[in-house]
Amino acid sequence: MSEQISRVVLVTGGNRGIGLACAKAFAVAGHRVAVTCRGEAPAEVVESGILAVPCDVTDTEQVDAAFTAIEEQLGPVEILVANAGITRDGLVLRMSDDDFIDVLDANLTGAFRVCRRAVKRMMKGRWGRIVLVSSIAGRVGQTGQANYSASKAGLVGLGRSLAKEFASRNVTVNVVAPGPILTDMLAALPDDQQAAYAEAVPLGRLGEVSEIAAAVTYLASEDAGYVTGAVLPVDGGLFMG
User: Fold this and answer.
1) Which of these, 119, 159, 162, 192, has the minimum number of CB atoms within 10 Å of its CB?
2) Domain 8-234 belongs to what topology?
């Protein structure tokens, strides 16, 4: 195994759920970690010694300001986890243009904005790791989530294009596609609905946020230097494509 070096890490949308689990995993491993959040940082972030920076990824100026603040306090971002995203579910016939466009702007264009800002310094340093957090919905589609599924599928094309553009500068770009994960949002569903989701998974259970964090931290590690352009499903075998 390669020696693990302390790096500067940014996790967008790192104030809860998968993003927070990733941020805490990087912090435990000795990295200098920042997260973006649109509201006030939860106590769990502050107590973990993680830098919280306000940022709405749909605003290019806020993205630039967040990176500038991180660079001043921690140094240039070397590992980026693009996790920030929203949902506005609804059937297509009832979905407004704004509901569709806003989700793509936050989930897909927002990832593009943070990647574009991060990669400049990565290329200069000739080292970088970018991990885009997609979803099984982007691979198989989901009723009532045309906007969300399209945005998450778009991350695969974005990630592979960036992987080819920046490979010569030793910057890897990969995608993690979680299946049904036990987040606050899923935990709020009725028990029978959670059980139905778990039953559909070959492993017979819902995933944990720590299992997504483990995949993300591997792809961001020194040991994953020969992995780029990959889509890693972490879904209990739900989609074997």
Assistant:
1) 192
2) Rossmann fold (3.40.50)
Does 2 have pLDDT greater than 80?
Answer: no
Q: Does 148 participate in catalysis according to the annotation?
A: yes
| Residue 48 to residues 27, 181, 191, Cα–Cα distance (Å) | 8, 23, 31
Please say if the pLDDT value at position 3 is more than 80. Answer: no
Residue 196 has pLDDT above 80, yes or no: yes
Residue 172's closest CA among 227, 134, 232, 120?
227
Secondary structure in 3-state letters for 161-177:
HHHHHHHHHCEEEEEEE
Nearest to 206 by CA among 215, 214, 197: 197
CB 92 within 8 A of CB 65: no
- The domain limits of the chain are 8-234
Among 148, 197, 218, 226, the active-site one is 148
Q: pTM for the whole thing?
A: 0.95
